[in-house]
């Protein structure tokens, strides 16, 4: 699975999400990949419904109910507001001097630099950072409904490196390059009730 790190990606994704989902700062419903004007966010494919207010255009759309089908030891529960780092898979090379290995190591250097910058930016905002230790992340809402996110699947059309979770809310996508984030959306999300 390739990870995309392009500055222009944020603009394209933000515009695409706004256009595709018709987000205008109100509550909505994710149903079949479309945002409607209803006051519930859910995943129609799995019949998950979670009361949400202030849905962000950056909210993830690829989640499923925590219905017990995934072994508990494969799920990392996230309970507090935090930045979640989804680290790339470590690769090994027979010839560490090959062009493929050089390209991989260069991209990982860039990834680590941008992750440090993103982590530092959110630390300055008072948000702690954690590493996703499991493939699946579980989030529980105030009404007891749980959702699971598969970190190896695309979110909103692309592979992500970072999620931001505010307790009780659906996580949002954060771009690894700090300047590519729509900080107005991020602040609205962090300040939502």
Describe the structure.
The chain has helices spanning 7-21, 99-124, 183-191; strands at residues 29-31, 34-36, 40-43, 48-51, 64-65, 75-78, 82-85, 129-131, 136-140, 146-150, 162-165, 172-174. The protein is α+β, with helices and mostly antiparallel strands. The chain has a domain at 58-191. A 4-stranded mixed beta sheet has the order 5-10-9-6, with no helix packed on it. It has a 4-stranded mixed beta sheet with strand order 8-7-11-12, with helices on one face. Strand 3 (40-43) and strand 4 (48-51) form a beta hairpin. Residues 1-54 have low confidence and may be disordered.
Lateral arrangement of strands in the main beta sheet:
5-10-9-6
Mean pLDDT equals: 75
Structural class: alpha+beta
Pick out the low-confidence regions.
1-54
Q: N-to-C SSE series? A: HEEEEEEEHEEEEEH
Radius of gyration: 17 Å
Query: What is the overall silhouette?
Result: globular
Beta-strand proportion: 15-25%
Portion of residues within helices: 25-40%
Main sheet attributes: strand count, strand direction, barrel closure: 4 strands, mixed
Distance between the termini: 35 Å
Please give the number of β-strands.
Answer: 12
Number of helices: 3
């Amino acid at each position: 699975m390739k990870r995309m790190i392009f500055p222009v990606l944020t603009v394209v994704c933000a515009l695409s999400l706004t256009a595709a989902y018709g987000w205008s700062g109100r509550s909505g419903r994710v149903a079949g990949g479309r945002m409607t004007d209803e006051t519930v966010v859910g995943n129609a494919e799995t019949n998950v419904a979670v009361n949400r207010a202030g849905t962000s255009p950056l909210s993830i759309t690829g989640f499923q109910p925590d219905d017990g089908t995934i072994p508990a030891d494969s799920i990392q529960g996230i309970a507090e507001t935090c930045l979640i780092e989804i680290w790339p898979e470590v690769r090994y090379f027979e010839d560490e001097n090959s062009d493929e290995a050089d390209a991989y190591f260069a991209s990982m250097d860039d990834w680590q630099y941008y992750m440090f910058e993103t982590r530092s930016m959110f630390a300055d905002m008072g948000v702690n950072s954690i590493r996703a230790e499991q493939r699946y992340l579980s989030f529980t809402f105030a009404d007891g409904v749980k959702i699971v996110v598969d970190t190896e699947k695309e979110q909103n059309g692309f592979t992500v490196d970072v999620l931001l979770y505010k307790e009780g809310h659906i996580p949002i996508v954060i771009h690894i390059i700090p300047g590519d984030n729509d900080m107005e959306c991020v602040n609205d999300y962090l300040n939502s009730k």
